[in-house]
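request received
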Amino acid sequence: MRLGSGSFAACCVVVEVLGLAVFLRGFFPAPVRSTSSSEHRAEAPVPEPAAGASSNWTKLPPPLFSKVVIVLIDALRDDFVFGSKGVKFMPYTSYLVEKGAAHSFVAEAKPPTVTMPRIKALMTGSLPGFVDVVRNLNSPALLEDSVLRQAKAAGKRIIFYGDETWVKLFPKHFVEYDGTTSFFVSDYTEVDNNVTRHLDKVLKRGDWDVLILHYLGLDHIGHVFGPSSPLIGHKLSEMDGILTRIHTSLLSEERKALSPSLLVLCGDHGMSETGSHGASSLEEVNTPLILISSSFERKPGDIRQPKHVQQTDLAVTLAVGLGLPIPKNSVGSLLFPVIEGKPMREQLRFLHLNSVQLSKLLQESVPSYEKEPGFEQFKVSERLHRNWIKLYLEENSSAALLNLGVKLRRQYLDAIRTLSLSLSRQVAQYDIYSMVVGTVVVLEVLALLLLSIPQALSNKAELEVPLLSPMFSLLFYLMFLVLSAIHVIVCTSTESSCYFCSLSWLTAAGVMVLISALLCAVVSALSEMFVDGKLQRKNTGPSNSRWSELDLLILLGTMGHVLSLGASSFIEEEHQTWYFLTSTLCLALCHEIYRNCFLGNCCEPGLGGAVVALQDEDAGKVHKSHTPLDSLRGSEKWMALASPWVILTCCRLLRSLNQTGVQWAHRPDLGHWLTSSDHKAALSALSAFCLVVTFVLLQRRCSRTSRVAMALGLLGVYCYRAATGSLLLPWQRDKAASKGIVEARFVYIFILGILFTGARDLLKSQVAAANPKCKAVGLWEMYSGLALLAALLLRPHNLPVLVLSLLIQTLMTSFIWKPLGHDAAEVTVMHYWFGQAFFYFQGNSNSISTVDVSVGFVGLDSYMEIPAVLLTAFATYAGPVLWAIHLVNFLSSETCRGPAMSHACFCYALVCSFPVSVYIILVTSLRYHLFIWSVFSPKLLYEGMHLLITAAVCLFFTAMDQTGTRSRISS
Amino acid sequence: MKDTDIKRLLYTHLLCIFSIILSIFIPSLFLENFSVLETHLTWLCICSVFVTAINLILYLVVKPNTPSKRSSLSYKVTRFLKCCIYFLLSCFFFHIIFVLYGAPLIELVLETFSFAVILSTFTTVPCLCLLGPNIKAWLRVFSRNGVTSIWENSLQITTISSFLGTWFGAFPIPLDWERPWQVWPISCTLGATLGYVAGLIISPLWIYWNRKQLTYKNN
Ligand SMILES: [Zn+2]
Ligand SMILES: [Zn+2]
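response:
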C-alpha cells in the first residue's frame, strides 16, 4: 500500500495519541471517589441497625476526646521511634510506647511518599491520585471531604503551626495559623523554632479543640545530611522534649476538665538511606503512629509490638475520636484499640458506622460491588448486629450477650479490613500493564517514523507500507497469539486491577492487532533499509552534501532538548531551553545571511543559485551556497541584514513580558507592571496599538469582506476587554465591569465568518483547480480567523505576543526563508521551535497552575464543558498552533516545490512525537522520583495535550495537502 | 607547510594556556581573599589582561603573517587605534548579544560587560593580532574553506571552541544545585575559558593529524 508521507505521518500521530492515552490511563489511575463528594450535603448519620422496633440511638456517638493534638514530624521513620535511635534520643516517647497509656502502630504510607499527598491521605483517609491535582486546577485547596472540614463544620476550633502546605490545602479552616515554608532545605533549626515559639502560649490558653503542629526540620536534615547524621539525634531529642511538654500540659489540663484528650505523634513519610523520599522502599514507607491518651488502659507488663496499619486509618480514627462523621472518601479502617475500652454496644456502633461508610464508597466506585467478599461480610454482620441489638434491648447484659458481641465484633473487623483492602487496591499502584502497552505502541510508531525518514523525505514523498506481504502475515499471527496469551495471563492473575484488563475483549484484541501490525511494519522497514543500504553502498560512492551548520544546530538542539527532559529543573525551566535555542537559531541565520551577502558572490562567483551543489562530486570542497540575496533590492537587502536582530530583540522583549518557570518566576516583569491597576492607561494604549498592528499585518492577503470583518472583530476585542474592565475606553469612565458576553459573541460571529469564508475559498480552489491564488487566500483567511480568536482570548497584556509573532513570521518569510531557500524540513523545525518559544512567551509553564482557565468563560454565560475546554486548549496552545498554521500558509504559497507540504507534515509529526516518546520512558523510569507529582506528571499532561494538538495540526496539513495534490493533478 | 610551523603553533598555544594558569595563581600572592569564584570580577580583569598581553607579545615575536609593505609609524598608530576601537566595539557587541540571550538588562551590568570583555579577549584579540582590523578577512576566515594558513586555521578553531564553551557554559544555570558557580555569568565565563583552552590544545593536534589533507591556497 502506498501512502503519501504526509498522510502517513498523520496516521502515525493519531495512533500515537491512542497509545499515549492508554499510557496516561495507566499512569494516573482514577481515584476512588464518592460521587456526592462535591456537594458536601450534611447527611443524617446512619442509625444503629435494629430489627423490628427502631433503635433509639440515631445520633452520632459523643466524642471520645475533648481535645486532639497532632504532632506531625516530617520524614519521621519508624525506627527513629521504635528502633535503637528512639530508645537513645526519645526516652519519653519510648517510655510511653512501652509502658504508658498509648497505642503505637507502624503506619504504611503509599507512594508517592511526598508531603502534600501524604497530608491529604492523613486528613481525608483517601489515597489521592494525581487526577485530583488536575481536577482543581487553579486552587491547590483540597475540595474533598476531610476530618478538618468536618471539624470546622461541627464548630471545632483548629489551630495550625508548621508547613505552609497545610494552609494552602485547608484555607479558612484554621482559626489561627503560622505557615513555615519548606523552601530553604538547608535551614533546620529556625523552621522548627518558628513552630515551637507558639507552643507555650497556645497550651496555656486552651481555647481550641484541635492543634496541629508540623515540624519540617527532620526532613531538611535528612535531605542535606542523610539519616545517619548526628544531627538527626539532636533533632529527635528536641522533638521528644516538645512531646513531653505537650503531654504534661495536656495531663494537667485533663485533671481540671475531667475529659480525656488525645495526642497523636506521626510522620508523613519516612526517609531512605540517602535521606530523600518519594519512592516506595521500606524506609520511606514505614512511619510511626502513636496515639497517647489517659483513657487508654494498659495492664502493667503488657508488651506489644507495634502493629502494621495504613496511614489512611488515622482519618477515620480521628473522626470517631472527635465525634464527627467519617470523611466520605476515606478508605481507612478504624484503629480498634482506640475504642477497646468502651462498652460493647458503643464499640459495635463505631464499627458499624465505619463499615457503612466503606460499603457506600464501594458501591459508588465498583460497579459489581455485590460480588465483593467484603460487601457480603458486611451484610452478614449487619444482620447479626440487628439481632444482637434486639437481644440487648430485651435483656440486659449477660455473658452470652457478651460472647455474641465479641463474635460479631470479629466479623465486623474482618468485613472492614476486606472492604478497605479492596478499596485501596483501586488506586494503590501504577498500572504497569497499561503503561507498557501504551509505551509499546508509542515506541513502535516512533521507530516507524524514524525508519521511514529516507523514503518520506525523498522527492517522491511517498512510502510503501507493507501490509500484505507473506512474511508479514506469519509474524503478525505469531505476535498476535503471543500477545493474547500474555494478556490472558496478566489479566487472570488475581493481584492486578489494570485498566487495560477492564476493557472489553474486542477492544483489547484491537489493540493487540495494532501492536503486532506495527511491529511487523517496523521489522519490514528495518529489513528493507538494510537491503537498500547494501545496494546503495554498491551502486553509489560517497554522495550527499555535507550538512550545513543550520542542520547541525537543528539536530543538536532537538536532541539536547529531549535529553534535558530527564532533569526536573530543566523541565521547570523549559522556557529557557527554547529561548536559548531560538536565539541561537537567529544567530545562525544571521551568520548565514551575512556570509551570503558579503561572500556569496565574491568567493564563488560561478555558483550563484546552485542548489545543484547537492549532487556535486567533490563534496568536501563545495560551498553549498544558497540562492544569494541578489534577488532583493537595495532596501530589502538592508532589511534582510537587519531582520535577525529585529527578531532577536522582539524575542528578548517578549521574554521579559511574562516571567515563568520556578526559579525566576518571582522576578518583576512587564506583564505584572501592565496589569497593575495604576497602569491601566498604558495597557489600553498598548492593546489598541497591538490590535491596529495585528490588523495591518493580517489584512494584506485577505479578501475584502474578511478584511472588514477582521477590522470589526478587532474593534470588538477591544470593546470586550473594556467591558470586562481591564481596559479603558476614553468616552466612558467608571463603568461597572460586566462579563462582556455581548461583545465577545459579537467577535465570535466575525471569527466564524472569516473561518467560513476561508473554508469556502478552499473548497472553491478544489473545485476550480485553475486558481491557486484562491487557495492561498483561503488558507490565509483561516489563519487570520484563528489569530483573531487568539486576540480575543489572550489577556490584554499578552497581545504583544500575538503581534510580535505575526511580525516575526512576516520578517522570516520575506527576508530569510524565501531568499535563502531553506528546504521544507528546516523551515518546519524552525516553525516548531518558534511555536514552542511562543508557548512560553504567553506565560505558560510546565506546571498546571499557569493554565488560564478563565478563557473558558469568554462569551459564555455559564460553564459549558466542551466549549470551555476547547477555548482553554486553544488559548494555551495559541503560539504553537498559529506557527503551525503559518507553516501551511508559507509552504502553500510556494506552489512550485511539489512535495514540500508532505515533507513538512512528516517533519512536524516527527519533531513533536520524538520528545513525547522519549519522555514517557523517562517518566516511567522516574516514577518514584521525589518530584514526580510536582514536576514530571504535569509535564506529562502537557506533552499529552501537545501531541493531541499535533495530531489535529497534522490532519489539517494532510487535508491541505490532499486539496493541493488534487488541484495540481487536474491543472 | 612544515612541521616546524606546527611546533611553533603548539608552543605559542602552550604559552597562552600558561598565562591563564598564571592568572589564577599569581594574584593570590598579592591580593588577599583572592579566588576565582568569589572575586570573580577581579579574576576576569586579570585574566583578560594576561591573555591580551601574551597575545601581543607573541604577535610581536612570532609575526605569523607576512609583514605589510607599508610600515610607517603613522600607519602603525592608526592601525593600533583601529584595533582598540574594534576591541571595544566587539565588547559592546557581545554585551548586546548576551542581553538578547536573556542576561538581565540593568542588574549585573558590570558582570555582563566583563564577561563580554573576557570573551572578546579570547576571540577578538587573536583575530586582531592575526588579521588586523579587516572585517572582510574575518568573514573569510570564519566561513567554510576560507582559511589560508595554519595560523588562521587554529584561530578559527580556538574562536569557535570559545564560543561553544560559552554556549555550553549557560547550560547549568537553570539547574537547582545552588552552587556558587551557577550564578550569572560565572558558569559562562568558566565555559568560555575552558573552551578557549580546549581550542588551544586541540587546534595544533588537529592540524597535525590532518596535515596531509590540508592544503592552503597561499602556501
Ligand atoms: Zn514530608
Ligand atoms: Zn522532604
